[in-house]
Amino acid sequence: MPPPDTHPSLLGRHQSVMPDWLALYYRDPLEITHGEGRHVWDAEGRRYLDFFGGILTTMTAHALPEVTKAVTEQAGRIIHTSTLYLNRPMVELAERIATLSGIPDARVFFTTSGTEANDAALLLATTYRRSNQVLALRNSYHGRSFSTVGVTGNSSWSPTSLSPLQTLYVHGGIRGRGPYAQLSDAQFIEACVADLEDMLAQTRGGEVAALIAEPVQGVGGFTAPPDGLLAAFREVLQQHGILWISDEVQTGWGRTGEHFWGWQAHAAAGPPDMLTFAKGIGNGMSIGGVVARTEVMNCLDANSISTFGGSPVTMAAGLANLTYLIEHDLQGNSRRVGGLLIERLRAATAGLPVVREVRGRGLMIGLELVDADGSPSPQAASLALEYAREQGLLIGKGGREGNALRIAPPLSLSIAEAEEGAAMLEAALRQVQSEADGESRS
Q1: How far apart are CA 15 and CA 108, in angstroms?
Q2: For residue 149, what are the CA distances in angstroms to 117, 145, 157?
Q3: Which site in 69, 264, 334, 414 is 20 to 30 Å from 130, CA atoms measured?
Q4: Under a CB-based contact definition with an 8 Å cutoff, are residues 96 and 257 in contact?
Q5: Residue 159: other Cβ atoms inside 10 A
Q6: Torsion of CA 428, 376, 405, 218, to 10 degrees
Q7: What pLDDT shows up at residue 203?
Q8: Local confidence band at 6 (pLDDT 50, 70, 90 cut-offs)
Q9: Report field, pTM of the whole predicted structure over 0.90
Q10: How far is Cα 381 from Cα 402, in angstroms, rounded to an integer?
């Protein structure tokens, strides 16, 4: 009899101490040990082209020297103070974000995550409006806290129906499926606005606090409404005094290429009352936050602080990262390289029935996978993840049915890397198609 295994695998140790509901990608889960630029390495030394960036978080590049230097220098001075003390890096980053936000007379509150940012925005909105009624889009995702789960329209990420909020879900998040899918863009917007107005007619005199909406639904599979839908919603909301919260946790900082913020594709009726941000601004450091009009931000009449939001180290990282992003025009790079990548993927998948749609803008691209009868295929998405990894490419997945692939590389992606990644993904999808064809023949 062989001796007992006295050195359990990292996976075994993970499974013995972590919750069962903490998801892991891949049949053989991956341990990432280090990264550089747009690449990461696993514990066996294999290199991967990273097309997911730690869930859209490594926004500029892995091990970006400017961010590493800022973190190291700040950590050598002081790591933590809390918001009870003046914090120069926090004030400087807040000033820059307030100016960039497009929201007039803006104030900024820092948190440690997008979930916490959305949670804070909901607290502000419900306090300001003295109502716990909130509008959200179907298929949305806004975080994992008790309140943000309560406004998440994607049932796969909503483990409880209990909530401190009364949430009303309206159409508009998914353009290519649902009852309005066959309409033109103008008709789609008109139908969604009519749905919103009908929903408001069923509330108590327009006592809704806010609409929270992602301009591009992230976990939902990178789906988006036609440009202008949220502006049309905004016109209706303003008639009732209802606030608009733009959830920019995944769309912010130029990822969509055409705009710095996702809401700017819907700007005809002006900026949102609040926007939330996180992920990319820290390039891996834990930063989130809310930008709001002063009268909304200042509506709380109780004491509040943030122990870890606005940490000197994370603020130094955010400042360095934002400076790099702007000075190197990564928004423009996202537009140029992302445009080439999406066209390359559309050409590569044109003859593959398993790929129903390639959608997105900038470096935020989704591929929807389906069975032979056109129904969503989460199995195909899972296979595509596995085969892409075998090719040396890391991607994400999502969607209402879990059948969408999510492509979101660092915004410094080169044209050569985009071509390389597209070729690897094409090879992976051809393997998926081959299996699907084999099953249909058997």
Answers
A1: 39
A2: 13, 6, 7
A3: 264
A4: no
A5: 11
A6: 180
A7: 85
A8: low
A9: yes
A10: 7
Measuring CA to CA, which residue among 243, 253, 249 is closest to residue 297?
A: 243
User: Closest Cα partner for 320 from 274, 284, 289?
Assistant: 284
pLDDT tens digits, one per residue of 165-180: 999 999 999 999 899 9
1 has pLDDT over 50: no
User: Quick one: residue 165, left, alpha or beta (phi over 0 = left, psi -120 to 50 = alpha)?
Assistant: beta
Structure confidence by residue, pLDDT tens digits, 33-67: 999 999 999 999 999 999 999 999 999 999 999 99
DSSP, res 288: E
What single-letter DSSP state applies at residue 284? Answer: T
Tokens coding 193: 């606005």
Question: Closest by alpha carbon to 309, among 107, 140, 101, 111?
Answer: 111
- Other C-beta atoms lying within 10 Å of the C-beta of residue 194: 12
Pairing of strands 274-277, 288-293: antiparallel
Contact present, 238 and 230 (Cβ < 8 Å):
no
Quick one: 303 exposed, middle or buried, by C-beta within 10 A (0-12, 13-18, 19+)?
exposed
Among 231, 276, 226, 234, which residue's Cα sits nearest to residue 252?
Answer: 276
What pLDDT, on a 0 to 100 scale, did the predictor assign at position 158? 87
